[in-house]
Design a protein that fits this description.
Elements lengths: L2 H21 L4 H27 L6 H4 L12 H13 L3 H21 L9 H8 L1 H7 L16 H16 L1
Helix pairs in contact: 1-2, 4-5, 6-7
Amino acid sequence: MRPAPAVAAALAALASAGILVLVLPGRAAVVGHGLLVVLLGLAFAIALDRLRRALPVRRSAFDASFVQGEPSRARPATLERAEREVTLATGTAFDVHFRLRPMLRSIASGLLLRRGIDLERSPGRASALLGPEVWDVVRPDRPAPQDRSAPGLAADRLERAVDDLERLACS
């Protein structure tokens, strides 16, 4: 509380106490005690206000956890890893089978499990839902490439595979 309003409140309390003593002269002690409580309350409010202004504002760790900082411009590491594996998969058959395939199998398996279909136990149903581009890469019986340096997947095939996975995720 600022001093000016506190002084105004103290003067109002004094005036009220004076009027009460004039109206109720037998109760002057009670009015005096009431006035003392009001004046001490005002003094306490002024002291707390000054103390609050004098101390630095420090937030607790709990309060600080709710403050939102600047959004990070950094790209997620998993996104960079996925992009790297897709880029490598366009290069060699080795990268398709040993880098891209495990990632696509994990995604496809998760999407199929939402529908109660296991990639390994129900290959017919899985093949129908995944589409030919995805199924060709994630099928359980897909052999490792004989020539590891053979060309990888073409970009248009990868794009169709991603489209198939997105379609399955959204349906």
